[in-house]
């Protein structure tokens, strides 16, 4: 393609506070319609907003995590537009002086293969500001219903610079951003629940050109795959227009995921004239520098920093760290387990393979995967499991069974082993009898082994393991067999 | 601002304000509002360079609610009782084409 | 003894305490008086008589139990139709809110209830407080009790007329550019706009949020002081409400032994002022001088810019504040709307009156793209200059004396078709709102046509006690407090 694509994203993230941005009414996803309202939420005559400090604090924390500068003073503006989901027909937002300025997000581009780490790059942000969420519309065939539960939920709007150059980069950005935000605990960023929503501005220009082309704004991108598909669609659409020597029209478009296409909203919208002005009901907020410094020091480690640390300090491979570090809960759990038993590789393996498998196996179909906190799983149990395997108390084979049991019951491995009598059978005389039996019954394998085929000994192990129900210690067994074969001249 | 700029585009403004006006209203209003805008010219007689705009009657920063503690909510009947039209506990409006 | 409905709060308290009459009898006296004169005055848009009597009975029961809540227990307080009273209609004299009842109490109403007051009626006003004559009401005009053909002033015309005509003991109004002081002056009563932030705006339906204040209207300075005391106090529900130490305004009234310095702004006595008003104010100033007050001529150089600054800021804020009346959740919904756009514009077009539409259009225009800097931003800057003028003046004086209005009450319909002439009515009062200062109006004379003349006393921020005592000193030495209109 002779064009370069330039993308800027605007991401709205619901900040997880107990109460709304400008009133103490609660919010939680999935409540009965219009049961989370009060006089302020409904914009009743005479009501006034009062700022929820928690929203400021959390948004500032997010800004610090994303390397933004925190404003000395931020202010509140009214964005005036009529829409039936907007109780006051103006949105309280921060137009002139946002809380967070600048910043950047580290992203990882797709690698050459799944198990190969891709290139890293920093994407520049323009700002993060706070605003209030409108209510929710649902459309029937003939009318529209309005639920105001969501109205007034604090939103952080994260605005990037036009600093993304492909749909893959946009996806990488959203993944990195989501991981970062979930790390801070500011939002769960569940796009299906509307906790994270994205608009994409897309433009094309001739490769090598410094000037930005005319952009279009894509709305209603409620999943990362929609973001990718809509950008790719838009690139093709714009390229076709430019190829025909025509001009792209600056407009808002709506992505229709069911038809895999977008359509113009231009006929439905008028020129945007939001008549911003400072809100007279809310006072400016001046940020306490000491408070900001304290918050800065208390920030959690960023996911990619953590990944680098794991790779260096624990020599964990990319395939493990990329899974472990993308999820704060997993990696926190890993670090917690390390405190009980210092075996990073084995512990990481159990978490990335066995734990994740159990979590997805126990999730309801259609629901998002279970998180560790939903289960009885304890970090010390994983540590103990690694320890008992390494000490030879149980085999790796048995450990899988113990793990499944541990996940369900929450009991410690030792308790499970004891209760189910799973410890390796180290009764040498019994095993010796079994070994002698095996040698006697498999003269061919014994002969092969003697001729130098070391693997042939495995044929002898199978029946023994079967007879001991896997409890024979493989190392002991190996040594014993070798000794007995040599002795059986 | 020149004289010609001052004519209010009353259709555009009424559309922004979501306010239906009769043709009569529009004509009457245009005349009155243009007189008022001419009167507003007085403001240009004063030099405001370097003057802070005053958005509030007094300067007090950092007024907020601490603690993020839950307050009361309305029973859904409150909205239902006041809404001009509702169904399934939601407010009904003509179909919004997004 | 005078009629109960024309008595002051102290007298009524004595009578209630000594059981000369009950709160129910007092309320009934006000109800009977209202029934007798309301056909001529039309001060109310709504009266819930049962509810008022119920509150009065509760007051009597409290007194019987020895649980008197204070100076307001059992006193009927008339309420402007712009303050939210739980379960009562709240229409702001507009068709757009026909049928709406507030599910909550304004903070000042809660405070009055806690003081035992009887919340009485819904008083007429200019629609959404936009006007200076109470002619812009969807529920009929209110008459000036002194001359039924004249307007009572506005927008709190019902609040002023009710107090003047004995239909309420005291009342609450709201003042954005003079809406308490101007009708008080034209109806011959006392009316006060407190410092911005002294009284919570929670439950006051916003016209211009950075200018609106709730305030008392009464027949005496002392009753205004008492009512002010009852409704002040920091409110966490209003971010612009200030945390000030409580002041006992009524006890501070006699603190005039130390005579104050009064400023007289030369700009307020130039063209456009009615000669009778000018003379009355000058006479009052002479009286203060003779009593030992120092009188100083001062200058408020940006005075003539107040009207444009005010009408830009107030209409801009109003255009946004009134956007919520859209026909979706609670306000009037047009029956002819076929789509959402029509639902908004037809509902609003049908619901709002002419003056409200005029101001919404003006306010929308001054905020619209390309005009913001020239109008709104510039007005905000000039507003700073206007405040600085006052700050400068208050380095030299304790209070400022001006006329409240340029003319006495005018005939109904006289200025209805000339909005600019109507706006100029507020020329002496609006600078006070722009600067956020307290000011009151008290009667200081009568015209030859027997219409009241009001004098405005402007104070420093939170200087309510000062201006009340200055006004009280004049009041107790003159007879205007006890003049009653013939209705
Ligand atoms: Mg945006
Ligand atoms: Zn936004």
Explained architecture:
The complex is a heterotrimer of chains A (489), B (98) and C (487). Chain A has three domains: 3-291, no CATH class; 301-420, no CATH class; 428-487, Arc Repressor Mutant, subunit A (Orthogonal Bundle). Chain A has 15 helices and 17 strands. Chain A has helices at 53-65, 167-184, 224-243, 289-297, 303-313, 318-324, 328-340, 344-361, 379-390, 396-409, 413-420, 428-441, 443-450, 458-467, 474-487; strands at residues 3-14, 69-70, 73-74, 77-80, 90-93, 100-101, 104-108, 120-132, 136-139, 143-147, 154-160, 196-206, 216-221, 252-256, 261-264, 277-278, 285-286. In chain A, strands 1, 2, 6, 7, 8, 11, 12, 13, 14 and 15 form a ten-stranded mixed β-sheet that branches. The radius of gyration of chain A is 30 Å and the shape is elongated. Chain B has a two-stranded antiparallel ribbon. In chain B, strand 1 (86-87) and strand 2 (90-94) form a beta hairpin. The model of chain B has no long low-confidence stretch (mean pLDDT 91). Chain C has 487 residues and is of the alpha/beta class. Chain C has a single domain (4-262, 397-482), classed as Amidase signature (AS) domain (Amidase signature (AS) enzymes). Helices cover 37% and strands 13% of the residues of chain C. In chain C, strands 1-3-2-4-6-5-10-11-9-7-8 form an eleven-stranded mixed β-sheet, sandwiched between helices. The longest helix of chain C is centred in the C-terminal third of the chain and has 21 residues, at 373-393. Chains in contact: A-B, A-C, B-C. Chains B and C meet through helix 1, helix 2, helix 3 and strand 2 of B and helix 9, helix 10, helix 11, helix 12 and helix 13 of C. Bound molecules: magnesium ion (MG) and zinc ion.
**What would you call the shape of chain C?**
globular
Q: Let me know the average pLDDT of chain A.
A: 92
What overall geometry of chain A do the principal axes of the alpha carbons give? elongated
Tally of separate domains of chain A? 3
Low-confidence stretches of chain C: none
Biggest interface, chains and residue tallies:
B-C, 51 and 70 residues
State the total count of DSSP E strands of chain A.
17
Q: What count of domains describes the coordinates of chain C?
A: 1
Helix content of chain C: 25-40%
Intertermini distance of chain A? 75 Å
The percent range for strand residues of chain A is: 15-25%
CATH architecture type of chain C: Alpha-Beta Complex
Using only CA atoms, what is the Rg of chain A?
30 Å
Strand order of the largest sheet of chain C: 1-3-2-4-6-5-10-11-9-7-8
Radius of gyration of chain C: 21 Å
**Bound ligands, named by name, code or SMILES:** magnesium ion, zinc ion
> Uncertain regions of chain A: pLDDT < 50 for 5+ in a row?
none
